[in-house]
Amino acid sequence: MLNKKILNAPPRTIMTPGPVEADPRVLRVLGTPILGQFDPAFTTIMNETMEMLRELFQTKNKWAFPIDGTSRAGLEAVLASIIEPGDTVFVPIFGRFGHLLTEISERYGAVVHNIECEWGSVFEPEQVIREIKRTNPKIVAMVHGETSTGRVQSLKEIGKACRENDALFIVDAVATIGGIDVKVDDWYIDALIAGTQKCISVPSGMAPITYNERVEHHITQRKKVEKGIATEADNNVRTRPNIISNYFDLSQLQDYWSDRRLNHHTEATSMLYALHEGVRILLEEGLDIRFARHKLHEKALVAGIKAMGLSLFGNEASKLTTVTCVIIPSGINGEDVRSTLLDQFGIEIASSFGPLHGKIWRIGTMGYSCRQDNVLYTLAGLEATLLRKGTLINAGKALQAALDVYDSELVHV
Amino acid sequence: MLNKKILNAPPRTIMTPGPVEADPRVLRVLGTPILGQFDPAFTTIMNETMEMLRELFQTKNKWAFPIDGTSRAGLEAVLASIIEPGDTVFVPIFGRFGHLLTEISERYGAVVHNIECEWGSVFEPEQVIREIKRTNPKIVAMVHGETSTGRVQSLKEIGKACRENDALFIVDAVATIGGIDVKVDDWYIDALIAGTQKCISVPSGMAPITYNERVEHHITQRKKVEKGIATEADNNVRTRPNIISNYFDLSQLQDYWSDRRLNHHTEATSMLYALHEGVRILLEEGLDIRFARHKLHEKALVAGIKAMGLSLFGNEASKLTTVTCVIIPSGINGEDVRSTLLDQFGIEIASSFGPLHGKIWRIGTMGYSCRQDNVLYTLAGLEATLLRKGTLINAGKALQAALDVYDSELVHV
């Protein structure tokens, strides 16, 4: 009987750009019994999580907490809380998720200006800065790591230009946080959105964000506490139109995440446990060591892919460490290869979106999935699958090339 | 060092109106390894969950799936996807969560008409129906079980009147689903929102919803698939203004939860596992047996409270099975009692909101927390705490009265 089946999740090697395998220690804490949301034992966990998130984000910002929803819930909470109808937003697009920033901004009434570069490359900071100076937007929103094209955008110079031009700089770091360096304060980022299901190795369902006083000042001007719990003083501070969404209203959420503990939603207990453990593990490993680990396994994967005779997609200088895009050899059905990898090997790699669909595979090296055994098994699986389908590739070279990379490192990280 | 602490969650007996204790079997499946969102093994779990939710909701609706967020994310998804600026919404208010329905509706541009009855009572259906006929609203939104006052509203006659007046009937059943009877189809409910953290005994973080073809028809007219993945055909069906929120856009979510598997968010894997198991357990127990269990433990709790000499708050005829509101005896500091219960006994009960804050305690009997041992321990803890603070109550009577209830039942459920 279909509707009474016991949950059945077969083992997988997940090498997509997310969701990736959760750390077993994270999975274990998910089973911790529930606490009430205003239990001091729970608010302590909330505070500890904020403290650890600040360290992960490399920021002194007061506000660093998760939105209870998937990564795009974090994007929407930040954009919806900042953007007022008619605001000018500048979004340089270099892949799908630039379109998403544009889409959400427009839904909240922004007048969005885009420049776009070819998918597979990124912008010279100078080009973006020129456009900021020319158009003087209120907000600049950008993706840091584009999973759709496997590119990473340099941000620091752009952030500095935003600050100089009094624009708010909002960054989507969902694909990079915990995998490569993200410096919120040093890069002049005013608000940043992360995701859990990629390099943090926590299941999907929370979106840690951070924002500084410039953003807080803006949000506080829009403060509206909901009926039934608002005090008279609550709504008197408002000098700008209130934020439309209740769920994503950062003026209420920051009161929930402060000592006031304003009753808003009921915090997602188990997911917060998972985030707490995921970030704790990450900081215990150490940011620099973790970034080096991501670099190493990417290097081994890329060496294996190239040794097989396959080519990488996109501009090499802007390659994102955590996503490797591989051009599907001509005559090969990419989806057919992906199915075989999943059905025969239990390995999942990804396809891509829009103009790149059917043209590239995307292989993630993120978080707990970013391991030597996973890289070696994925190369082995891909080689065997391609050979089985009659593709002309170099047999037996990929694993040797990857092992060469591992052997050349003094310490396996 | 504060920011590297291992997660520490002490054991608790949680007798609030939510979040309550998660079923240990639910906690166990939370540790199941991750699957990719488009892995056939995962989409099978998505489909099984939809099938089980239909049974829980007692509906033949095609659409029954969770929103990835806490309960109010479900409220906002439904209201934001239906309401267009200028729409008339009628919300009869009998507690805090009627205010929340009003609040969210107004944020999305609705013109809301309210009637309010004294907190502690509910509406005669005739009164609501008269108002529907008089004002002819496009939408009627109501709470089924009000946790803030511990009341339950009779809905069937109101639902019938909505259908006859061509109004859409939206119901917040967060506090009742899985604990008392909720009949979506029989009661003419067009859209219903549930929560996981109360009678379903799954952690907070998902909001299962259902809606029928009347609502779907409306949503489809507002369809907007986001940039970067929309096909030309996608946005041609739109004849009404698009839904503002991207995250809560049911026109995209229903494409994600159908065979099309439109890429929207990354489904919250572990929480879906938990929901799947929670609803499976619930249906395995059987709806009627589960409702009878909730009745029994409420009866024992109420008998104990009364035997102690305490009084219940509110109109008896409309008492909500899953929440018992107790009047705080005069001269007693309610928060002080709650603190002692938590600190000495590890028992959590709730206070209330707005006009009832400091006037009543609220004790939940919900889901996995709704058990004989929990009821007996809570009564023992409350009695001992009150005696310790010098309250004049009947000593030694509460547990005897509760045991009398249990003994009088042929079968302990």
TrEMBL record, chains A, B:
Record keywords, A-Z: Aminotransferase, Pyridoxal phosphate, Transferase
**Pfam families associated with the record:** Aminotran_5
Which PROSITE patterns does this chain map to?
Answer: AA_TRANSFER_CLASS_5
- The UniProt record lists the Aminotransferase class V domain at 41-351
**Plastid recorded as keyword:** no
Q: Which InterPro entries match?
A: Aminotrans_V_dom, Aminotrans_V_PyrdxlP_BS, PyrdxlP-dep_Trfase, PyrdxlP-dep_Trfase_major, PyrdxlP-dep_Trfase_small, SP_NH2Trfase/AEP_transaminase
Q: Which residues form a coiled coil?
A: none
A GO molecular-function term, please? Answer: transaminase activity
The protein's required cofactors: pyridoxal 5'-phosphate
Identify its protein family: Belongs to the class-V pyridoxal-phosphate-dependent aminotransferase family.
- Tell me what this protein is called: Alanine--glyoxylate aminotransferase family protein
